[in-house]
Amino acid sequence: MHFEILYQSSKSKARVGRIHTPHGIIQTPGFVAVGTNGTIKSLSTDLVEKIGLELMFCNTYHLLLQPGTDVVREAGGLHSFMNRSMPLITDSGGFQVFSLAYGSVHDELKSRGKKKGDGSVLKITEDGVLFRSYRDGSKVLLTPETSVQAQKDLGADIIIPFDELPPYHIGEEALKFSLARTHRWELRSLAAHLKEPKRQAMYGVIHGGIDQSLRRLSCETLTKEPFDGFAIGGSVGKNRQELLDLISFTRPMLPDDKPNHLLGIGDLPSLHELIPLGIDTFDSSYPTKAARHGFLFTKTGGLKILQTCHRRLFVPIEPGCTCPTCQTTSLAYLHHLFKAKELTAYSLATIHNLHFMVRTMEEIRKNICEDRL
Amino acid sequence: MHFEILYQSSKSKARVGRIHTPHGIIQTPGFVAVGTNGTIKSLSTDLVEKIGLELMFCNTYHLLLQPGTDVVREAGGLHSFMNRSMPLITDSGGFQVFSLAYGSVHDELKSRGKKKGDGSVLKITEDGVLFRSYRDGSKVLLTPETSVQAQKDLGADIIIPFDELPPYHIGEEALKFSLARTHRWELRSLAAHLKEPKRQAMYGVIHGGIDQSLRRLSCETLTKEPFDGFAIGGSVGKNRQELLDLISFTRPMLPDDKPNHLLGIGDLPSLHELIPLGIDTFDSSYPTKAARHGFLFTKTGGLKILQTCHRRLFVPIEPGCTCPTCQTTSLAYLHHLFKAKELTAYSLATIHNLHFMVRTMEEIRKNICEDRL
Question: B75 and A314: CB-CB below 8 Å?
C-alpha cells in the first residue's frame, strides 16, 4: 500500500490523497460503505462498482460464521468470491464479539450500561474471546492470531488488528486495563500479519474511549509500530460534540504521512466537520440502512419517501442527479414501490444514497483542492 | 395490434409468431412474467428489459388500490410510470376480487371448496362486485366499465375484459349462471373498450371451467365478437392431465389467425406439452417466486441453492448460461447470500430464472421452425 497526498488545504487539516492498493486507488477523503456479508444489501457487486464506491467494508465476524473464511479462501479470497475488482477492508471481528458481550453501543448508551449481552460470549481472557456461533451453536475462539488468519483468508486490501471494544460506561481502571490488553492484542495481530503480509495493509486502531490521556497513550504506543495507517475506534463520544472534541484532540497525534480512518461514522453533518480535522476515510452503514427505511439523501438534507406528498410527484429524487435511480425513476414510482413493500424499492433507494455519498465526497475533494473547505 | 404467423409446425399445432404492439414485438410462443405492482419483484425495470422479457403482466386490482390508477394515468400510463419501453398486459381485477370471495384457487382446491373468502367482498350483482380495499377500508365497485376504465388509465398494450372466476368446486347450474354473466360482462367490457380503443388490444377470456360443453359455448359466444385475441381462463383443471385435456379440446375452437394466451400457467413441463397444442403465450409468477425461494432453473430441472452441497461450488448455476448472474456469480456465493438472507440473493436468482425462461422460449421457437417440436 502506498499513500500519496495530492493537496493539503491551507485553511484546515483537510487533505486530498490517494491510497494505492493491489485492487486500485481509494481517493480520500472517501466514504466507505458497509457490506457486512460480502454484499451491499440489495445491490449486485457490479452495480456497486458502477456507482464508483472505491472502498467497501466487510465484517470478518459475519463471514467467519457464514460462509466460513475457509470457503472464501477456497474461492480465491473475498474479491473473487463476490466478484469485486475494487478495494476491500475487513475488520477484526472484535467489534461484533464485544457487542455480544456488552450489548451494542447504541443499546448500551440508551440503557446507560445496564443492558448486557445475550450470553453468547463464554470467556474473555488474555488469549482472546471464546463465543458461541449464532448459526450452529459451535464454540469459536477469536484471538489476535485467529482474527488475522481469518482476514488473510478473506484477503482484503486493508485489515484491522484484533481489539476490544469496551463499553461507553466503564470505570477508569477497567478502561486502562482494556486499553493495555488491546495494545498487546494489536501488537500480536501485527506480528501475525507481518509473518505473511500477502500485499495486505494493516491499520492500527487507536483506543482510549473519551479519556484524552488514554487516547494520547494509545497514539504514542501504536504510532511507533509499523502499521500502514491508523483507524480511530472504540467509544468516540455519545454525541457529535464529544466526537468532534475527541477527533480534534486525537487526530494531530497521528502521522500525517499515513492514511487514517474513522470507524463507524458516516452521517453527512459529521463528515463535513470531521474532514477539516484531517480525517481521510469513514465507514458507515447509515446511507444504506436509511435507504431501506425510505430516507433518501438530497442536497437540502433528505426526504422520507413514504410521505404522501410524494404520491404524484413525477420527478426524480433530486433534479440533476446522475444516479441510475434518478435517471429512470420518479418520486411517485418510488413512493408506490415503498408503499407496496416491493424489494425493488430498497435497491433503487440504496443506489441513490450510495451514489449521493460518492458524489458528495468528490465535491468535497474538489472544494479542498480549490481551498474552499 | 397485428398478429403475424411466421411458421406453422407440420408436426403439431405449434406455431411461431409475432404480436406487433405499440411498444414493440412479442415473439410467440412467449413467456410472460408477472409484475403485480408494476415491478418484477427485486428487479429494476431496465434489468428486466435487458434480460429480454418482451411481455410483462401487471395486476389491475393491486394497482387500483395502490397507487391508484388515477396516479398512473397522471404519470402518463404504466409504461411511463415504471419506465418500461416494452409491451405490457393487464388483467381485469376479476381474478383477485373473486379470489377474495371464494378463496384462492389453491386454497380452494386444497380445502375441496370448504374454505371461503375473508369477507372483504360485500356484494356481487349483475352490475359487478363491491369490495372493501385492504389498504384503507374504502368500498370499491368493480364493474366491466370501471375495470376497463382502470385499464385505460394504466394503458397496457393488451387488456382483459371483466370476468368472474368461479370456484373449481361449483355445481353445474351455478357454473352455467356464472358463465352467462361472464359473457355479458365481457361484452360490456368490449363495448366500453371500443368506445375509446386508445391503441390497446383486448383479449376475450374463454370460461366454462372443466365442462367441455360450456367451454364450447364460451368459444362460440366470444369468438364471434371483435376481440383481438383470446385468453383461456377460469379453472383449467386440478392437475396437468385435466389441463391438457381441456386445452386439447378448447384450443381448436379458437381462431388460428388471432393470438391466444393461457392465464396463470408457466411451469416448464406444462409449457412443453401446451405449446404443441397451439398456445402462444403464458403468464406465471412461478419462475420469479421459485427464485426468491432459492429454486434455480437448469436444463436438467433445477437446483435448491440452500442445499449444503453448493457451499463450495465455485461455478455458475449452469455452465454456458449467459445471464448476468451466471456471468458474475458462483453457486457458493449465491448459497452464502441465501443463507445470510441477503436481499441481493433474490435479485440474482430472479435474473437467472427469468433469463432462463426467455432463452427456453427462444429455443422452443427455433425448434418449431426446424420442425423438431
Answer: yes
Q: Which residue has the cell 497514539?
A: A219
Say which range, A230-239, A302-311, B151-160, B179-188, has the weakest mean pLDDT: A230-239
The verdict on A232 and A309 lying in the same domain is no
Contacts of B348 in chain A (CB under 8 A): 44
A291 versus A118: which is more confidently predicted? A291
DSSP codes of every residue in A241-292: HHHHHHHHHHGGGS-TTS-EEETT---HHHHHHHGGGT--EEEESHHHHHHH
Q: Do A336 and B67 touch (CB under 8 A)?
A: yes
A81: which chain B residues are within 8 Å (Cβ-Cβ)? 330, 332-333, 336
* Residue ranges making up the domain that contains B7: 2-284
pLDDT digits (tens, 9 = 90+) for B205-225: 999 999 999 999 999 999 999
Hey, are the CB atoms on B332 and A66 less than 8 Å from each other? no
Q: Do A22 and A56 fall within a single domain? A: yes
pTM: 0.95
Band of residue A169 on the pLDDT scale cut at 50, 70, 90: confident
List strand residue ranges (DSSP E) for A113-171, in order: 121-124, 129-132, 139-142, 158-159
- Report the catalytic residues of A: 91, 283
Contacts of B330 in chain A (CB under 8 A): 75, 81
Predicted local distance difference test score (pLDDT) of residue B373 = 75
In a domain, B295, yes or no: no
- Say whether B257 is catalytic: no
Distance of CA A141 to the CA centre of its chain: 23
Q: Residue A128: inside a domain, yes or no? A: no
- Residue count of chain A, please give it: 373
**Are B314 and B211 in the same domain?**
no
Best B62, B344, B348, B354 residue to mutate vs chain A (most A CBs within 10 Å): B344
- A202 closest CA partner among A184, A185, A215, A189: A189
Same domain? B266 vs B309: no
CB pairs under 8 A between A and B: 114
Residue B104: predicted pLDDT: 67
**A261 and A205, same structural domain?**
yes
The rounded percent of chain A whose pLDDT value lies above 90 is 89
To the nearest whole angstrom, how far is the Cα of A79 from the nearest Cα of chain B? 11
Q: Residue B283 catalytic?
A: yes
Contacts of A329 in chain B (CB under 8 A): 83
CATH number at residue B26: 3.20.20.105
- % of chain A with per-residue pLDDT over 70: 96
Does the structure show a pLDDT above 90 at B184?
yes
Q: What is the ipTM of this complex?
A: 0.96
Do B128 and B69 reside in the same domain of the chain? yes
Residues 6+ positions from B301 with CB-CB distance below 8 Å: none
Q: Which residues of A touch B (CB under 8 A)?
A: 37-46, 62, 66-67, 71, 74-76, 81-83, 311-312, 314, 324, 328-330, 332-333, 335-337, 339-340, 342-344, 346-348
The beta-carbon neighbor of B314 closest among A66, A75, A314 is: A75
Determine the Cα–Cα distance for residues A275 and A270; give it in Å rounded to an integer. Answer: 9
* Rounded Cα gap, residues B58 and B75, in angstroms: 16
Phi then psi for residue B14, to 5 deg, are -60, 140
